[in-house]
């Protein structure tokens, strides 16, 4: 029976030094897929490559061989030093669960981050373009998009900001409303301060950079389209700024209450938002008590990030439930896919036996009239129908149940019904029933057929 | 009929109150329009009630303190609707609707209020009442913005950044709203005070000392808020506190009249 296999690595199993060896540029995805599909006995293939994961999804009538092929396809690009252990693999319904979780951003480094869904969609389009997508992967991935959408809408998994820079931006927006045309002053040249200044600048604030080393200030200002200001103008710059990011390496407080008192007076008490990213801190804690001056240090911001992450983790439990629901729906679809050919094959087999026995019996009966022969033939067919009636009913009813696949499997084995050739036959039995995936089935039988 | 309509209006206001408070504390993705719908229904019922109150078509229902309270409550509702339609301040319903409800309920105690004697009625009096009601409505908006500002600032300082903090508007919006509303309300209050004094002198009454004094205090507070904001660049918390104090004093003026009227009828 055709089944799913996924082989891959992610931030959970491999460090970035290894992941970057396997990453595939988006414009190379189709080419890569064609190569993988050409040398293997794979029915379908899809490759997801982001900075946090590289995963190869395939389907094949021989899942064990397919998983080896898929593993080799990735392992050959691993650096010498790396172990094969960094690669994980799943088979069967676990693959479907995995892609549902990935698309819903439950498996992401930052749970609930929104980019992954777009990246999965790109991978989906690439597989379509490469012609390595068929009914199974097509259905599986389209449903993963729907699942991701449900998770996003029905849980709070994507709520709250979880990076220090964007939290700083959100806070600034909650103080100043529109940030367009406001001024950000970056004091010092810490990496985190720079990141925060950049994201503030993206919201439309003007950036001024001040540093003891004027050269450093100029370099930084140039790299992010800001303006370098000499250090002597610190007081006037503070008076004109709205958001101040401090991240110097100074062991003493830079923004003292004495300095800030005169600043506050000269800025006529306009609100001032100070983000102290330096360790040790650059802002005297007493400054935080001043009117209309709001001071947040790096711990405060990180705490907000952690709180938001904790909320997301709670919501993730809800999301897992949605995923199980969607998995049930997917399994039901798969069973219905197997049910029709099983019923057809079962009827055919029984009918053949009845016909054969009638053919053998008739010559041995003498003096039968035409109508007598008809009665015997009808009896054969009716026996088959009567015998099959109950099993058929049970099978059809079972298709919607969880153990339906077992039932179908048992029937196939009891009556020795051969597994139909995948790729060629399955899409044809499906066409018409599954409007959304029939066009994928058409593209699938082309290239995968050639590759054999 | 009138009593039934009054109770229905009060219930609708109370319901809207609860819904707006839930919107603030719990947030909601789906029922965002619910509080607004209920509140509009409450205003509809209130309007019907006011029309019943009006002695004859064309007259304003400003005959006594009860009706003045009722009209003020209605005015706050309308102003809030317009403000939330034009700016993104729907959440302020959590502060304004309770105010509306309170004034409406106070107007209901009005069966015990004495009507203004016909001899003191005049065009000047109507102008005085009208200007003060519109001023009160403007100050109510400023008050709500002030309350929200204080709450928002407190949450920001205490680093409680989820929930309510996310749902309230930014400090800047609240501060600007407070300033603008005071700038609208102050000239009306001034006009109201001048017409009031003028009317008082003409009708040779001298019994309103307490209310007048309270009104003067409110006027002085608002005047200093404006002066400090414009001249000294006052912003934020102190301005919000000043605005809230000014509004409370204007409410006290109304309360003074109500108590007097209640005592007068007893």
Polypeptide structure, described:
The complex is a heterodimer of chains A (452) and B (266). The C terminus of chain A is likely disordered. The longest helix of chain A is centred in the last third of the chain and has 64 residues. Chain A is 57% helix and 12% strand. Chain A has 16 helices and ten strands. Chain A is α/β, with parallel strands linked by helices. A six-stranded parallel beta sheet of chain A has the order 7-6-5-8-9-10, sandwiched between helices. Among the domains of chain A are: 152 residues, Glutamyl-tRNA reductase, N-terminal domain (Beta Polymerase, domain 2), CATH 3.30.460.30; 138 residues, 3-Layer(aba) Sandwich (Rossmann fold), CATH 3.40.50. Chain B has 266 residues and is mainly α. Chain B has one domain. The relative contact order of chain B is 0.11. The mean pLDDT of chain B is 85. At the A-B interface, α7 and α12 of A face α5 and α7 of B.
Produce a short descriptive summary.
The complex is a heterodimer of chains A (452) and B (266). Chain A has 452 residues and is α/β, with parallel strands linked by helices.
Give descriptors for this structure.
heterodimer, A: 452 residues, alpha/beta, Beta Polymerase, domain 2, Rossmann fold, 4-stranded antiparallel beta sheet, 16 helices, 12% strand, elongated, disordered C terminus, B: 266 residues, mainly alpha, 77% helix, 0% strand
Topology, please?
The complex is a heterodimer of chains A (452) and B (266).
Chain A: E1 3-10, H1 16-22, H2 29-39, E2 44-49, E3 53-60, H3 63-75, E4 88-91, H4 93-103, H5 115-130, H6 135-154, H7 164-176, E5 183-187, H8 191-202, E6 206-210, H9 214-223, E7 227-229, H10 234-240, E8 243-246, H11 257-266, E9 272-276, E10 293-297, H12 298-361, H13 370-398, H14 404-414, H15 426-430, H16 435-451
Parallel strand pairs in A: 5-6, 5-8, 6-7, 8-9, 9-10
Antiparallel strand pairs in A: 1-3, 1-4, 2-3
Helix pairs in contact in A: 2-5, 4-6, 4-12, 5-6, 6-12, 7-8, 10-11, 12-13, 12-14
Chain B: H1 2-25, H2 34-53, H3 65-86, H4 93-108, H5 123-157, H6 164-167, H7 171-202, H8 209-232, H9 237-265
Helix pairs in contact in B: 1-2, 1-4, 2-3, 3-4, 3-5, 4-5, 5-7, 5-9, 7-8, 8-9
């Amino acid at each position: 029976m055709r089944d799913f296999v996924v082989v891959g690595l992610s931030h959970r199993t491999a460090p970035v030094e290894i992941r970057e060896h396997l990453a595939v540029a988006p414009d190379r995805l189709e080419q890569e897929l064609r190569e993988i599909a050409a040398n293997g006995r794979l029915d379908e293939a899809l490759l997801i490559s982001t900075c946090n994961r590289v995963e190869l999804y395939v389907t094949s009538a021989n899942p064990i061989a397919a998983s080896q092929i898929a593993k080799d396809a990735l392992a050959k690009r691993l650096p010498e030093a790396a172990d094969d252990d960094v690669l994980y693999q799943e088979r069967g319904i676990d693959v479907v669960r995995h892609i549902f979780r990935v698309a819903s951003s439950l498996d992401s480094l930052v749970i609930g981050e929104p980019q992954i869904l777009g990246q999965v969609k790109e991978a989906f389009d690439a597989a379509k373009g490469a012609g390595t997508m068929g009914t199974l992967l097509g259905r599986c991935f389209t449903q993963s998009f729907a699942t991701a959408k449900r998770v996003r809408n029905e849980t709070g998994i994507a709520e709250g900001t979880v990076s220090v820079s964007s939290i700083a931006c959100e806070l600034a927006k909650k103080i100043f409303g529109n940030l367009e045309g406001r001024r950000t002053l970056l004091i010092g040249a810490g990496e985190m301060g720079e990141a925060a200044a950049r994201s503030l600048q993206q919201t439309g604030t003007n950036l001024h950079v001040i540093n003891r080393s004027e050269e450093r200030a100029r370099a930084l200002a140039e790299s992010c389209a800001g303006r370098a200001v000499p250090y002597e103008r610190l007081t006037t710059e503070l008076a004109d700024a709205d958001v101040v990011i401090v991240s110097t390496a100074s062991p003493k407080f830079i923004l003292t209450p004495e300095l800030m008192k005169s600043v506050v007076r000269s800025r006529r008490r306009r609100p001032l938002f100070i983000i102290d990213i330096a360790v040790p801190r650059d802002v005297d804690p007493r400054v935080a008590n001043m009117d209309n001056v709001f001071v947040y240090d790096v711990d405060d911001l990180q705490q907000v990030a952690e709180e938001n992450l904790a909320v997301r983790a709670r919501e993730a439990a809800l999301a897992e439930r949605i995923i199980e629901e969607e998995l049930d729906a997917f399994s039901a679809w798969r069973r219905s896919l197997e049910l029709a050919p099983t019923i057809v094959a079962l009827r055919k087999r029984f009918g053949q036996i009845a016909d054969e026995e009638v053919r053998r019996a008739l010559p041995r009966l003498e003096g039968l009239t035409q109508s007598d022969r008809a009665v015997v033939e009808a009896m054969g067919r009716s026996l088959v129908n009567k015998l099959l009636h109950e099993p058929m009913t049970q099978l059809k009813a079972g298709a919607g149940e969880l153990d339906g696949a077992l039932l179908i499997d048992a029937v196939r084995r009891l009556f020795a019904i051969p597994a139909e050739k995948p790729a060629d036959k399955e899409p044809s039995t499906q066409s018409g029933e599954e409007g959304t995936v029939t066009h994928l089935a058409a593209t699938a039988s082309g290239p995968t057929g050639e590759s054999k | 009929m009138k009593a039934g309509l009054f109770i229905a209006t009060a219930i609708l206001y109370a319901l809207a109150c609860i819904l707006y408070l839930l919107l603030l504390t719990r947030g909601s993705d789906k029922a965002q329009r619910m509080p607004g719908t209920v509140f509009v229904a409450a205003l509809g019922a209130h309007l019907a009630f006011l029309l019943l109150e009006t002695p004859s078509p064309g007259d304003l229902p400003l005959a006594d303190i009860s009706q003045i309270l009722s009209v003020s409550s209605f005015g706050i509702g309308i102003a809030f609707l317009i403000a939330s339609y034009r700016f993104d301040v729907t959440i302020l319903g959590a502060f304004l609707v309770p105010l509306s409800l309170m004034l409406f309920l106070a107007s209901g105690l009005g069966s015990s209020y004495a009507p203004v004697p016909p001899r003191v009625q005049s065009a000047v009096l109507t102008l005085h009442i009208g200007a003060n009601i519109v001023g009160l409505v403007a100050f109510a908006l400023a008050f709500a913005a002030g309350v929200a500002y204080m709450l928002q600032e407190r949450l920001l300082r205490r680093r409680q950044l989820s929930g309510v903090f996310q749902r309230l508007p930014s400090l800047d919006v609240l501060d600007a709203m407070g300033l603008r509303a005071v700038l609208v309300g102050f000239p009306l209050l001034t006009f109201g005070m001048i017409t009031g004094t003028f009317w008082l002198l003409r009708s040779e009454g001298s019994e309103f000392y307490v209310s007048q004094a309270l009104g003067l205090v409110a006027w002085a507070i608002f005047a200093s808020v404006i002066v400090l904001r414009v001249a000294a660049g006052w912003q934020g918390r102190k301005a919000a506190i000043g605005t809230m104090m000014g509004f409370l004093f204007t409410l006290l003026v109304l309360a003074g009249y109500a108590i007097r009227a209640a005592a007068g009828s007893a």
